[in-house]
Structure formats: structure tokens, C-alpha cells
Amino acid sequence: MKVPQETRDMIRQGTNLISSFAQFLVTLLPAFGIGIGIGSQSMRSVPQVQPIYWSFFIWFLIYAGCIAYGIYQALPVHHEDKILRRVGFYTASAFIGVTAYALVAQFEIGSEWILIAIFIWILASLLVAIMRLTVDQSRLTKTEEYAVLAPISLLLGWCSLAVFVNIAAILKDSGMLGTIETSFSLFLLLATGSVASVIIYKTNGNVWYTIPVIWGLIGVVIANIWQQPNTAVAGAAALAAIILIGVLVIVRKRDQGNSGRHGEYL
After folding, report:
1. Burial level of 44, CB count in 10 A (0-12/13-18/19+)?
2. Cα dist. 152→33, 93, 117, 142, 193 in Å?
């Protein structure tokens, strides 16, 4: 039985609205004595690739952006919006994933690797949404860029870095890294930079995606200078940030050049 489009639109709007608030509200549970704060848990075993503590304040910007998106897409005028129809169920999936991650982490449910599986779920959902939004970014209005593209991209950017940090934390906590932690950290930074470069390229130089990745890498640099001094990791993180900025500039110049040449033929 096929679900009517009007019903699908209502489900899409309602799910995004509720889950955009839920992913933030569940993080407040430890303040009421329910569960253990994610921040407290992250201090148990701090990997070399973990950004300085204040870097995580970016979550407030991300949550605010996602809530703004949730409200924006729920407005009656956007009930039949074609762009939101293309990405809505994927953003809802990502928000539900972020909510699930917080609950699993705060209540320490099952293996820590469940958190990595949830991260993959979040990343997969966001990647589909972002690819659909940036296939022709010129079609987005300024309002759509700020209310739709920006919050989704910010969340994707931070999560694409956080998944590697979580992997490092789990392995360090298990004692598997030992004397090879620095080498493994350098490998993770290489992987992070490679993944981010591909996403920047595939999303036509998405600045909103790049910002949280660069922010996180700067946090890694600072952490490895003052918090747990490691010149190799700090240098690699700085180099990765510089390379990503270079990739962003090159891709955006390429796209601007293509737009200019296209205009000459019109």
C-alpha cells in the first residue's frame, strides 16, 4: 500500500521537528541525574586526536542550526517543498541517529562499538542529504543555504571528524594502541583529511562542511601543544587543516571558473 504524499510530508516534517529538538534535549538528562554526561566519559581515555575540550562547544551552534532547520522545514509553506522532500527523511534519520548516540553513550548500553555503528548511520544519512543539496547549489536561495544546507553541513563536518576520534578513544581505552598511538593518530589524521577532501570535492566546495572540520583540527593542534604535548600529531593536524583549506579554495575557484564560462555561452 502506497502512503499518500500528503501523509509522507506530514511525517517528514513532524519527525524532523521533533528529532531536531530531541537530539539536544537528551544531552540535558545527566543534569537531572539521569545517565552519565558524554563529556565526563570522554575524559576517561583521551586519545591524541581528540580536540581541546572547548572545541566541543561547537555542538551548541550545530544544535541551534538543526533546531532552526527543524522549525523552518515544518512551516506550512514548506509542506510541498521539493528540496525538503528530497532530503527530509535523510536529515530526520541523522537527527534520530544523533539522539540514539547520546542515549547509548549516556546510559552505556552495550559495546562501545555500537557508537561507531551509529556514527556510520548518521554519516550515511547526512551524506545522501548533502549530495542532493549540493548537486546544483546555485538553485538554493540564500534562505535555503542558511536554513537547510548550513546546519546539515555543520553536523556532517563535525561527525566526520568525531567518528575517528571515537575509534581512537575506544582502542586506547582497550589498551590496544600502546606504544603505537602516535603512529595510529597520524594514520587517523590522514584518513580524516582524505575523507574530508573527497567530501569537499564532491559537494562542490561546501564551506559549511569545511568549517567544523578545520575547527576540530585546530582543536587537535592546540590539545597536542598544551594539553598533551606531541609535536608530530600537532604538526600533522595543522598540515591536514592547511591542505583542506587549499582543496576548498581550488574547488571553489574551479566552480567559479566553470560558471563564468557557462555565462559566456548564454
Report:
1. exposed
2. 31, 12, 20, 15, 20
Round to whole Å and give the CA distance between 54 and 20. 23
Whole-structure pTM value: 0.92
Which of 185, 184, 206 minimizes the C-alpha distance to 197? 206
Q: Which stretch of 34-48, 84-98, 217-231 has the lowest confidence by average pLDDT?
A: 34-48
Residue 165, all three cell numbers: 576520534
Task: Calculate the average pLDDT of the chain.
Answer: 92
Tell me the three cell numbers of residue 153: 553541513
Cell of 3: 502512503
Give the C-alpha separation, 240 to 244, whole Å: 6
Q: Which long-range contacts (CB under 8 A, 24 or more apart) does 100-108 make?
A: 102/23, 102/26, 102/27, 102/38, 103/26, 103/35, 105/38, 105/41, 106/26, 106/27, 106/29, 106/30, 106/34, 106/35, 106/36, 106/37, 106/38, 107/35, 107/36, 108/36, 108/41
Neighbours of 143 (CB within 10 A): 9
Query: What residues does each domain of the chain span?
Result: 5-264
The C-alpha cell at 209 is: 562542511
Say if residues 45 and 173 touch (Cβ distance below 8 Å).
yes
84, 78 contact by CB (below 8 A): yes
Place of cell 558524554: 38
Tell me what the mean pLDDT of segment 92-103 comes to.
97
Cα–Cα distance measured from residue 214 to residue 169, given in angstroms and rounded to the nearest whole number: 20
Q: Looking at residue 27, what is its pLDDT? A: 94
